[in-house]
Amino acid sequence: MTTFILNSSIAVFEAEVLGSDKLVLVELLRSGCRITPSGAPAVQRLAVEYAGKLKVVQLCCDKNETLLAHYEIRNAASFLFVRNGEILAVKDATTAAQLRLLAQNWLEESFFPVMPKSQALMPRTISFIGEEEQKIRCLNRLSDAKLGSDNQPSSCIEGRKNLLTTKLGMPVTLSAVIDTLCWLLQAEGEVSASEQAHALIDAIPVGVDLGAVPSAFARWLLYDRNWGIARYYSEQLQPLLAKIKTLHDRKSSDSAADQNEWRVLSQQVLNFNAGNGPHEENQKNLADILQKITIPLAQIDSNLMARLCGGAAYLAGELDKQTWWTESEQGEMDGLYKELYETRYQKLGDSPTEKDKDRLANWEIEALDLEIAWERQKRQLHASLWERWDAWGKQQALLYARFNRAAIEYLLRQFSRAPRLHIS
Q1: Do residues 16 and 58 make contact, with C-beta atoms less than 8 angstroms apart?
Q2: Which SUPFAM superfamilies is this protein grouped with (predicted)?
């Protein structure tokens, strides 16, 4: 049903639009302001298909200039989306497909799970919901945000991770990849993490389907010959890994593996871990990952994706580490740091809680001063150990940078190959 408003006061507008318990699509009419039951078929179809969930209002702009000025609605606007008294979007002339996708996105955020079946729906993984201005907004927000260790790019872009798919068309698993790559740079003190995040988002074309990118990247993390996690599995685990890869290959070639095969294989991995759990720490972690990846690649969630991404970089470092840093040296360094923590506890006690901000701030300053003095002393007493530690740290930073470059190059190729949705 469509409501036509010819001449409205602010009170009427607030009652009909801002006060509605439904999502409201306001079509702004000009040039005579005639009601158009058949003149805007895309809007009328939305009104019919989302009946009970979406309210469509046609508002005569020529008769409501004061009203539009009051809500700072620009003259060129053609559509408004309003929900719970909030104007969500002000759109200029837009395509039927874009209008439909916006309605779908905000209806889903409002917890309306039922989508109309009369027409094929635009995939929710279309980048930036097919709009150039959405990409510009996203990049501006990321540029204005302060990117720190707890301020991940995906949070800066939209404020909440669960909006990434509904508003940006970015699968949450893909955002986990970008977050992890930037975290690796931040962890090594690099200042380019924010620039990298901006460049990655900027490289995503507008209007392409990103749905298959996370699965492709998960495959790269697992099986790439230079960086893949599969390179680190022991001979004991290789047979199970080969079976998993066979099913992953079958899935990627569009011949879906029978669910029973996944269940049987998952049980085999579970039995192996229970009866033969490797004692070496890295192999324990790898055996656990093996159990987690005994699923179709498309079912990998954001937590596992972040673990695979960080794990691939970490394991590459562990393989290279023995040349630069030995287990005995690590044990010696662990002993020194244990001494630091014991001294800090004796002098400062436990860290205050976050509720006591002033005490916590003072405690952190004193703890930092203590650690600086301690490290200065230990560097003099254990000069050769610290030289080796510094050399390994530099090597690790270089290795993470190489991993980042390889991962980014792969992602950029996937972005360029993503199928484009032709919106009309």
Answers
A1: no
A2: Thioredoxin-like (SSF52833)
Which tokens in the block code for residue 263? 């269940």
For the chain, how big is the Rg over CA atoms in Å? 28
Q: How many CA atoms lie within 13 A of 376 on its CB side?
A: 6
Expressed in angstroms, the distance from the first to the final Cα of the chain is: 25
Question: In the numeric block, which tokens belong to residue 379?
Answer: 């560097």
pLDDT tens readout for residues 285-307:
888 899 899 999 989 988 899 99
Measure CA 134 to chain center: 16
Three-class SS state of 358? helix
174: nearest Cα among 200, 156, 199, 141: 200
Query: For 208, phi and psi rounded to 5 degrees?
Result: -110, 155
Strongest mean pLDDT among 64-68, 268-272, 368-372: 368-372
Find the angle CA(182)-CA(413)-CA(215) to the nearest 5 degrees.
75
pTM, full prediction: 0.65
Give the domain ranges of the chain: 2-109, 127-203, 214-320, 327-381
Calculate ∠ Cα 306-309-311, nearest 5°: 100
Architecture of domain 2-109: 3-Layer(aba) Sandwich (3.40)
CA dihedral 375, 379, 380, 386 (to 10 degrees): 170
Residue type, 6: L
Instruction: Pick the closest to residue 49 from 96, 13, 14, 109 (CA basis).
Output: 96
Count Cα atoms within 13 angstroms, Cβ side, for 2.
23
Q: Residue 301: is it exposed, middle or buried by C-beta count within 10 angstroms (0-12/13-18/19+)?
A: middle
Q: How confident is the model at residue 114 (pLDDT cuts 50, 70, 90)?
A: very low
Cβ distance 218 to 207 under 8 Å? no
The residues near 253 (Cβ < 8 Å, ≥ 6 apart) are: none
**Could you read off the pLDDT of 378-406 as tens digits, one per residue?**
999 999 999 999 988 888 888 888 898 89
Q: How far is CA 297 from the centre of its chain?
A: 17
